[in-house]
Amino acid sequence: MKKIAIIFLLFLGVQSTSFSQSLDEYLKVAAENNPELKAYFNEYLASLEKVPQVGALPDPELTMGFFFQPMERFMGNQQADIQLMQMFPWFGMLKTQKDEASKMALAQYEVFQDAKYRLFYQVKNTWYQLYRLEEEIRITEENLEILKQYERLALIRFQSADIGTGSGPSNMQQATSMNSGSSTSSASSMGGMSGGMTSGTSGKSSSKGGSSMGTSSSMNGGGSGMSDVLRVRIQIKELENTLALLEDSRLPIKAEFNQLLNRDINEVVSIADSLSGSVVSWERQALLDSITQNNPMLKMLDAEEEAYEAQKKMARLEGRPMLGAGVNYMPFSPRTENGMPMGGNDMVMPMLRLTIPIYRKKYNALQKEAELKQLAVQQRRENTVNQLTTRWSTALRDLDDATRRTKLYREQTDLAGQTLNLLMTSYATDGRDFEEVLRVQQQLLDYQLKLITSIVDQHVTIAMLENLAATELN
């Protein structure tokens, strides 16, 4: 009996592997290698190149005309007519155009920032899901080993019961064959039990004394031991199937993680040894204020609003005249009149040009367009604040729920472990309540898995809040 108790109380612990690469390093790799993020950054760089374009003066215009035959004029024969003109926008127009382009570039930068924080959230979420999967595999393997220990214990009890009641060597062979785990050997053992029952009946017909009671005890002990073995084998098969499914799920999650980092899908991913429960140290209202101030989408809309304000100013300035300054150069060659050379001096004439914007409808429409776009951005910003507030409150609710579940499942795991120890001791002593042992063991496995899920949910929710606030919260 002491041997049985020692075997039953043995547990196999699987230690997590220690990894050197941290999540922060993966985030850095993702920021450097993710192709979508690099595309957003290049779009931002492209928008910056717009600033020097709109801040430059219009190209000067050069007009050149040549005569096939010199035109006779009083000053001589004109050979050509060359004009050079530079137009100048109204005062402040170039500065306003540069300001508008800069604001649009800033809006594009905030789009890049939003893409970066969304990528960080995806990397964190996938990494946490991979951690949860590895922990589920580890816990499942531990529980599978424990169930195999239960199976060995049930077999030992079955063999001990047969020997103690003198059921004969046939049941000993059945117990040995059951240890192989095949369905054929289980059926053979069941047949052996029937043989034992027949033998007990023969003994009863020859002797009506204590042998009848001994046979009845043999039947009950053998049947109980047999059912214990079969029950635990049913759970072993179910757990083996669950473990196979978990291991099959490793590849797609790892592939998703590596693709976010733009690496080969088979690249090794380092996972933390353990994750503890996490909380947000910020006050809730302060967190909401940070979201409404720092969220990249709100900053993008603010930059767009400022850009449309600059566009309104540009529309007003476009309704002002444009000034042009230039020079007209006319080369002359001397002409002969009555044998005397006449003229031949080149002429240089300064020129001014002025546009007259008299068609006002298009300028008024430009200004109205900018005003309506600015109003649309303001309304979109208000709607975005409402959506962010909803996501903030939902995330806090999920975080509170995950925190409560973490506390609950820790307590439930401890209680289930204590209950299981008591049941194990009872079964090792008198062989009772094996079905209850298996039920509590299944409960313990369920609580362990739910505890891992709740801890991961905490970290994923905090990652979501960090994505909304565009900052680290711990």
From TrEMBL:
Stored InterPro entries: OMP_efflux (IPR003423), TolC-like (IPR051906)
Gene Ontology CC annotation, any one: cell outer membrane
Localization (cell): Cell outer membrane
Principal place of residence: membrane
Signal peptide boundaries: 1-20
UniProt KW keywords: Cell outer membrane, Membrane, Signal, Transmembrane, Transmembrane beta strand, Transport
Keyword presence, Transport: yes
Region (Disordered): 166-224
Domain of life of the native organism: Bacteria
GO molecular-function terms, A-Z: efflux transmembrane transporter activity; porin activity
Pfam family, one: OEP
UniProt record similarity statement: Belongs to the outer membrane factor (OMF) (TC 1.B.17) family.
Protein name: TolC family protein
